[in-house]
Amino acid sequence: MKREETIRLAGLSIGYTGKHSVKQVAGGITDTIFSSELTCLIGENGAGKSTLLRTLSGFLPPLSGEISIMGKPLKSYRETELAKVIGVVLTEKNNLQNMTVEELVGMGRSPYTGFWGRLRDEDKAKVAQAIDLVGIAELRDRMVQTLSDGERQKVMIAKALAQETPIIFLDEPTAFLDYPSKVEILNLLHKLSQEAGKTIFLSTHDLELALRVADKVWLMTKGGEVKTGSPAKLIVNPDTGRFRFE
Amino acid sequence: MKRSVITGMVLLLASILVLFFLNLLLGSVAIPASSVWKIIWGADAGNDIWQNIILKSRLPQALTALVAGAGLAVAGLQMQTVFRNPLAGPSVLGVSSGASLGVAFVVLLSGRLGGVALSRLGYMGEIAMTLSAIVGALAVMLLIVWVAGKVRGNVTLLIIGVMIGYVATAIIGVLKFFSAEEDVRAYVVWGLGSFARVSGGQVATFAIIMAVLLPLSMLLVKTLNLLLLGDGYARNLGLNVNRARIWVIVCAGVLVAIVTAYCGPISFLGLAVPHLCRGIFRTSDHRVLMPASLLAGSSLALLCNLIARLPGFEGALPVNSVTALIGAPVVAVVLFKHRKEDTGE
């Protein structure tokens, strides 16, 4: 599969703009990410991982610098265009009642459906494909409210797959899961990056597991720095539990 | 569309037709069904009094219930979805309170400031009441829309809406204190809510306004479906969440404003009907829930109006008491039944 540049960041600075003040969370972020690449974003609580993911997803404007997605500045995308390029799996829990797994995954087709959101045959085929790829065919007709956390996470990943975006951002996809589910989700994401050529970018605290599947690691510090490197070069200080690159 | 959904819709439609006819048939004066049928179709039933009762009293009342029930149920569904709160209803944003405040200003102050009590003005007084309710409700709605543009959290917006309701109630309390007794009585009667208040001439205007607004509100089905997923996911799927939220609030707000202006504050229907429809159709899909709520809202309003007018009550029973007394157990039964099915108890 041809390796393509999907995300390019140049001197990116992220944070929040208030009425009278600007709070920078991290700055000077420069890197390029490619298709078929799985990047893990790690850092302590409060380092700004979610802020970075929200900025890259287009939810928050950057303070300065450039974000280029698929060769085009992020800010130049219209909402409906961006929905076909970036898929997300968030930590936000939706209390969905009376919706089947298939219907929820089908929502991923919204950017492609018409005014009423009706799925055409080709949309239904994409939904079925996403469900099969994630391995949740047996859950297809289950109501979402009856699923376990792990199953629900897989459904949201299938939703992102049905969205058919080259890039998927995931905010702590392994949080609140038991150990086997964590392994299963990360292996699935690895498979998607390798076999479907997706750019996967995820934040996580499950470092040991994540490092086994990651192609690249972004380390965010509370001082507002973001360092990037290979997982093999990441070392942990046994006294403080903090990470650094060799 | 699934066969069960189509069956459900057909049954709801049939229930509306039956209840609508029963609303024309039953009342304190007994009129044979054949005569009612003739009068509806413009034929001469040979009795002017019957004709007057049907065309000037029962028909406007049934039409009002039909339209108001649909409007409140659709608005309630929209509110519950946009706030992701099952307890949200048409009244939560203070829109009904705004209507009440508008009416209170006009009714309670007319005697004191204008020298003529509005309650004595008859038809003109009714029009003034309707207009003041619309102005009050829309003023509150504009305030809410302005706030919605400023705050991001739904809960904050919900709390502000409830606070506006409290402030409106407090101002009404002060106005009542300074008002003439007969005006306070007129206001209290308006506040009881009724489908019988809308006269033959007004009901046409009311029905036409709602016939435009209700189909327009159906245009929001995809937006509402996306909002179910939460702001983040909705945004990621291409929805401008802030704009969508404002559209839904405006739509629901206008529906409630118009219904409240004509019928007074009608409680319960807007809150309960969406739950009833979710229970019956077992879906969150607004392509099903919106038309279902519209039909079920009409049906339930007609049923409540019928009960309020049953022989013995003679129209004296406030429709708000009936909506809650009949509707609450029905919704509870539907919810319990499906909860048992879900958990397999």
Explain this structure to me?
With 246 residues, chain A is an alpha/beta fold. Chain A has two domains: 1-85 and 166-174 and 196-246, P-loop containing nucleotide triphosphate hydrolases (Rossmann fold, 3-Layer(aba) Sandwich), CATH 3.40.50.300; 92-164, no CATH class. Chain A is built from seven helices and twelve strands. Chain A is globular and about 50 Å long. Chain A starts with a strand and ends with a strand. With 345 residues, chain B is mainly α. Chain B has a single domain (3-343), classed as Orthogonal Bundle (ABC transporter involved in vitamin B12 uptake, BtuC). Chain B has helices spanning 3-25, 33-40, 48-82, 95-114, 123-150, 154-177, 181-192, 200-218, 221-227, 231-236, 241-263, 269-281, 286-308, 319-343. Chain A binds chain B through residues 57, 59, 79-80, 82-84, 86-88, 90, 92-99, 103, 107-108, 110-111, 113, 115-118, 143, 145-146, 159, 163, and chain B through 84, 219, 221-222, 225-226, 228-233, 235-240, 278, 282-285, 287, 342.
Short description:
Chain A is of the alpha/beta class. Chain A has helices at residues 49-56, 79-82, 101-107, 121-134, 149-162, 179-195, 207-213, and strands at 5-17, 22-34, 38-43, 64-69, 72-73, 86-89, 167-171, 199-203, 216-220, 226-229, 234-236, 243-245. Chain A has a six-stranded mixed beta sheet with strand order 6-7-8-3-9-10, sandwiched between helices. In chain A, strands 2-1-4-5 form a four-stranded antiparallel beta sheet, with helices on one face. A two-stranded antiparallel ribbon of chain A has the order 11-12.
Number of domains of chain A: 2
Q: What share of the residues of chain B does DSSP label as strand, in percent?
A: under 5%
Name given to the CATH architecture of chain B: Orthogonal Bundle
Q: What is the end-to-end distance of chain A?
A: 31 Å
Q: Give the radius of gyration of chain B.
A: 21 Å
**What is the CATH topology assignment of chain B?**
ABC transporter involved in vitamin B12 uptake, BtuC
CATH class group of the largest domain in chain A: Alpha Beta
- Proportion of residues in β-strands of chain A: 25-35%
Helix and strand sequence of chain B = HHHHHHHHHHHHHH
Structural class of chain B: mainly alpha
| Count of DSSP H/I helices of chain B | 14
CATH H-level superfamily title of the largest domain in chain A: P-loop containing nucleotide triphosphate hydrolases
Shape of chain B: globular
